[in-house]
Write a sequence for this structure.
């Protein structure tokens, strides 16, 4: 894989603040010259902003009360959390993300 292709693959990670150190510096250097990646970064940031619109960040009073109850107890008395349902199989998630599949 060429360096240009690798840089293009980092657009999403960069847009979501997922690059650090040398990867961040290299990608920012690439952005200076690459219009496609600058557009990709802008598109991802716009999409992330739209997806986060309308999210309620203030907890309900019942949730606040429950959290306060649990955090005020000694660690030994806090109940074990319920196990979450397994996520969709990786292949299924990739199909959703891949165009034309």
């Amino acid at each position: 894989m060429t360096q240009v292709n690798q840089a293009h693959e980092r657009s999403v990670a960069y847009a979501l603040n997922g690059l650090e150190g040398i990867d961040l510096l290299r990608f920012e250097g690439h952005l200076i010259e690459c219009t496609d990646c600058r557009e990709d970064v802008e598109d991802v940031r716009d999409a992330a902003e739209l997806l986060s619109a309308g999210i309620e960040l203030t907890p309900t009073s019942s949730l606040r009360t429950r959290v306060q109850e649990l955090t005020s107890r000694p660690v030994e008395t806090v109940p074990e959390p319920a196990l979450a349902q397994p996520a969709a199989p990786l292949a299924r998630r990739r199909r959703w993300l891949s165009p034309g599949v």
Notes: The chain has six helices and no strands. The chain has a mean pLDDT of 75. The helical segments are 3-9, 11-15, 21-33, 35-52, 61-72, 90-97. Residues 35-52 form the longest helix (18 residues).
